[in-house]
User: Fold this.
Amino acid sequence: MRLRRTMLYLPGNNPNMLLRGHLFAPDGLILDLEDAVAVREKDAARILIRDVLKRGEFGSCEVTVRINGLDTEYWRKDIETLVPLGRLDGVRAPKVDDAATVKQLDEALSEIEEKAGLEVGKTKIFCLLETARGIFNTYDIATASPRVTAVIPGGEDLTADLRTNRSPEGTELEGIRKSVIVAARAAGVDALDTVFPRITDDEGLKRETEFIKQLGFDGKSVIHPNQIPIIHEVFTPTEKEIERARKIVAAAKEAAERGLGAVQVDGRMVDAPVVKRALFTLTRAGLLEEGTDNA
Amino acid sequence: MPKNILGREIPEFIEGYGKTLPFMGEHARKPEGNRAGPKLRAAFSDRTSKVVPDLKAAIAASGLKSGMTVSFHHHLRNGDFVVNAVIDACAEMGIRDLTLFPTALFGVHKKLIEHIKSGVIRRIMGSVNGPIGQMVSEGGMDVPVVLRSHGGRPRAVVSGDVKIDVAFVAAPTADAYGNLCGSQGKSACGSLGYAFTDAMYADCVVAVTDNLVPFPAAPVSIPQIYADIVAVMESIGDPAGIVSGTTRITRDPLRLLISKYASRLIEASPYFKEGISFQTGAGGISLAVTAFMKEAMKKRGVRGSFGLGGITGYFVDLLKEGYVEKLMDVQSFDLEAVKSIAENPNHIEISADWYANPWNAGTAVNMLDVVILGATEMDRDFNVNVNTEADGALLHGIGGHQDTAAGAKLTIISQPLLRGRIPCVVDQVYSVTTPGEVVDALVTEYGVTINPRRKDLIDACQAAGNVPLVSMDELVARAHEMCGPTDPVETENRIIGVIEWRDGTVIDVVKQLKKK
Assistant:
């Protein structure tokens, strides 16, 4: 279970940010070839990202690239150039509207991985849902390929498609966020929230993060490094939650050693999903190795 | 050619500077003899006003002649009108070959270039930067500039190395008998710290004010016993250039990251305890370190004893909120600091001598626990360069760099590893300003690099567990890898700048740049 509390967008044409983004210790990086890069700079940015990937220094971050949309002429070149390097954990695909788009990307990735001698299926897919159609098809999209690891509702594009705009309260996104959560959980993928655009509004970011955490989101995309500690703090479990998780994990360990199935902690039955949740809590608290999968 | 202890070649005699003493270590040079003194003078009750009609009258009355040394302070910073006005007047009066002895010069003083070219100014003892720095670096002055620290300068004066003939003291408030104050008036600048030694040791002191008040002025920074002449100008400076508005903490994520690491280092050090004293200055990183430290002090219930140096509104808040007991202010950077020094008895005005001079009975930096400083480059031996840029041109003055580094128990240099494509760590710095023996740590976005001689700090950071440590070798290798090799600076043999250690020995020389 990988932590994805924060995934930081890094403009694909900015070597300074590409080289140093990992120093801010987000859980993941998104090297951006899409919106951050003007059309005439697409090739230069792709080459730059290629060289940065070859250098391969990203701390413990999950490394992804936001490729250009499958409705453009660039996406295939994006993955053909970058995937064979073997350093990418995943690609973030913009404007995914339906399962067919995912399947098309899946097939292209398989071909490239096979040719490069990489494990087929290694490259995960993060789906950006930026249209009403995409939101409507969330479950189908999330189950269209085993590569799909997360779905992410869009912000600006999506609200435009809905014929509204983004408000500070996020009223227009509330129903969408809830439906994305249900679909993501049903499909067994992560739900990651859209970016918070007002980069100097720390209080607003904190409020929105608390809200989406309560809805069940696993994390948020980030457009400025200063947003990272604020989001991490919201996602960091409280002392009480940590204490309870520790008790559950200890009880489960003891039960396993004694060959028992379910055990009781504080008068409540503890079964596998509860243990899994407790391990996740400890991971979020930084008390277990990131990426440890004990479930 | 003889070398100093850092291996820098220092000629025994430098044309326009004189005989040199090579730097042999932090405390190697011991003072001998007595203090120097200004000429005696007497004033009696037949003259109760020292006011003259204008600057030219003041210059005439001061006895200033060609070839003499004139001094200025830099409390009006980039808003200063006085230096340019005095030198303009000298030029009009036919005075030439002056030695200019400012505590610092700013961009606003680039007008002096014409006076250097025309021979009104023959020599500068003080920092040169911007266009003047470039001009000097390219060989535009016949005599080398002499760079001294804020403590080295008063040392040079009290020891007699430099004799000030006339000190022009810009005074935001003065009375007709020469009581001077920095915290009142439309051009208020707060502390007059850098002017004290000049006022006490010059043969003649000319106060220049735009706010003449009835005798006696109060409060008084520099009393009437030092001022010989009071000249009135319509305006001594532009308030917008004298003090900044509210100093804000940086939101630059890289600088914030560096600040976070620096404050963790401080928190892990043995000095983070009740009574801690610190100097952090006004730079983006420094201010953010102060903010992080405040959080840590709050969390751990630690209260500081004093904040030192250039004071900002942020430090004033620390004083008001009880995080420090006192502020010792040699220079007030913003409006809040100016207001505070006028009102709060725990906000103390100190002179540069008191602040940093190594040759007195005890200077403020000696009581300092922690200082955060900048650098243009630093090398494997932790030697720091703040004077020259990567292209070899004179860029900055020394300021209090040498003094606070020597005095503080923990000296931290904080700097991004790269500025554009220029790395801040190199195999060997181009010029040495501050020797590695007084520098304890470098903090970059890659973590904390501790001088190996501070094994205790390395242990403390490891014990704390949240300070990412990176060795100097690793950092230099990383810089090499990211930036590639840098072409060496090409110079002529002629020396255009002499960098003194705070005790007057020569730590390095700067050579003239080859024409491109």
Q: What stands out?
A: The first strand of chain B starts at residue 13 and ends at 14. The radius of gyration of chain B is 23 Å. The domain at 48-125+162-242 of chain B is CATH 3.40.1080.10 (Glutaconate Coenzyme A-transferase). Residues 23 and 258 of chain B are 32 Å apart (CA to CA).
